[in-house]
Amino acid sequence: MQKNDLSKLNLPSVSGVYLFKKGHTVLYVGKATNLRDRVRSYFDDDLITTRGPRVVDMVTRADKLLYETTPTVLEALVREAVLIKKYNPKANIEGKDDKTFLYTVITREPIPRVLVVRGKDLNEKRTQARGVRISYVFGPFPSGTQLREALRLIRRIFPFYDTERPVTTTGKHIRTKIEFNRQIGQYPRDISQADYRHSIRSIAIFLAGRAKELRKTLTHDMMRAARTEQFEIATQYKRELFALDHVQDVSLIKEDDKQGVAGPRIEAYDTAHISGTSAIAVMVVIEDGTPQKRSYRTFRIIGKGNDDIASLREVLSRRLAHDKWCLPRAIVVDGGKIHKKAAESVLADAGVAIPVVALVKDDKHHPREIIGARLACISERDIILANSEAHRFAISRHRRMRRLRI
Q1: Domain 266-405 belongs to what topology?
Q2: pTM of this prediction?
Q3: Fewer CB atoms near the end CB (10 Å): N or C, the chain?
């Protein structure tokens, strides 16, 4: 697709989901707070820097774009998961291990729980999770942060339990914790078994992407309760209908605007020097898809500055000596397999098991290949962002140091 194709689509400025297609094949599924702005971002000049070569390739191959609007961002998130499960788009899943995706399950228990689990915790038939029988599985959800935020919003409408152990588990500590969470509104309070079954049924319908059906069911139940003069029940259904149509949350919208999968702590390293002199190395930190600039660090290279491998070994060894600094989920280095192996050897010598990702660039300094992303279980977007930040910060600090010397 080309940028001028957008004018034919007449995209609305509302929340929804979009599908890039080539012929009958769905290449990618995404969600948006604002469909018009989100889709247009795929045709920006810096797309390869912000989203990586895989997304650029997908947009180039696509010859069609479809979209669906949703009443809320929350429904867009749920609908995205339903469509990813249905079409299994290559651009959504390539480079990722299904075992790392997050799912929501509803347990098959006298008092069902709603839990978040990883794919590796589900058995092959998806009838059990963590050894517990389950009735429903929903997902995969690309962003764990957004999924947990979505469940927090859903809980406001339909209360549910998400205890680590079955709700019927005995023990003073367990009962005290459940009662405390009831008091602060985290768990259902003063709710009958029939009302709780209603909540679980509604959650299951909603997470299956059938929000329209849920609205019809609630409307029918509300009218029936009103006809039989069960006005308190009718009022409760009315509140649920209103909440479904108006539930919004600033934090969920902000997460959506990040245009990518939020992730855990990542550290990226880069070096800068001029003909081997004034060599420095930098460390930058990305957490939940956001640069943590207060955690950035600069190291003056003591060894030969024109030896990138030696500089990388030195900076990693010195970084690991700071045992009070939080260890990252993954480390990103600028270079290829040689740089990756050098970093891994330093970590191995220190007895630290952290996956290393290497980002290879072309002659124009654009990302060309990412090595090790799958094992690291982090998104391409975060890898490219971390590498870009490390390069920018290294150049900036090196220029500053040269000015001070002059």
Answers
A1: Nucleotidyltransferase; domain 5 (3.30.420)
A2: 0.61
A3: C
